[in-house]
Design a protein that fits this description.
single chain, alpha/beta, Alpha/beta knot, Trp Operon Repressor, Chain A, 2 domains, 5-stranded parallel beta sheet, two-stranded antiparallel sheet, 37% helix, 17% strand, binds S-adenosylmethionine
Amino acid sequence: MKIDVLTLFPELFDVFRRWSIISRAIEQDILSLNTINIRDFSHDKHKRVDDYPFGGGPGMVMRPEPIDRAISSIRTEDSVVIYLSPQGRTHDQQLANALSEKEHLILLCGHYEGVDSRVVDNLVDMEVSIGDYVLTGGEIPALVLIESVIRLLPGTLASEESYIDESHYDGILEHNQYTRPRSFKGFNVPEVLLSGDHGRIAKWRKYSALKNTYIKRPDLLEGIDLAEEEADMLSRIMRELEKEE
Ligand code: SAM
């Protein structure tokens, strides 16, 4: 996969290129991650890329021409151009899965009051938000999107199971996890995890995943079809929790 990030702050990505799974994906040729400074495409003698908003108001708006030239310099038929924006669809695992199938992502990071709306309406395929709050720039949202996507590329993680089991991959949250010591301040690891019985462990993990989802994110259960055994487990969890109240 190729990812080009259009930004006014390319240096922000330097550390991440050398960091953990991003560096591994780059080293293994799974990912080519490039940053492009939008300022390099300004024809202004002071390399300015922003201007006052028409109609007045606070802040500055990023002009369309440098962004247009930057996108045109790299866009191909296989590119998906994404503007990181608080007005976009909220990023989630489903979108990360879909984007991990693409060959080339172009991520446009805004700054100031954002980009001229003609960019959004005419040059961009998709607006993506990382949540209902406003940040100063699109760089951190771009990194969130990059990480969520590249960990799904074959070969980036040690084993495919690492992400298949994780929260949100199949619509629910992950089961509880424990490591040493077996007993911590009197709190014990569930006995079943020490049993070596893989069948029972798998069942317990499904139970724990459903319980976590029901307690922490019941909304997720509304959108998924549970197998009969899982639906029975969920009813049991609900009865148990009712009794505890
Ligand atoms: N004036 C814009 C608005 O109210 O919709 C917000 C501009 S924000 C200060 C500057 C840039 O940060 C945006 O152009 C966008 O690239 C990025 N940004 C801010 N919040 C974001 C979010 N929640 N998700 C994705 N990008 C965001």
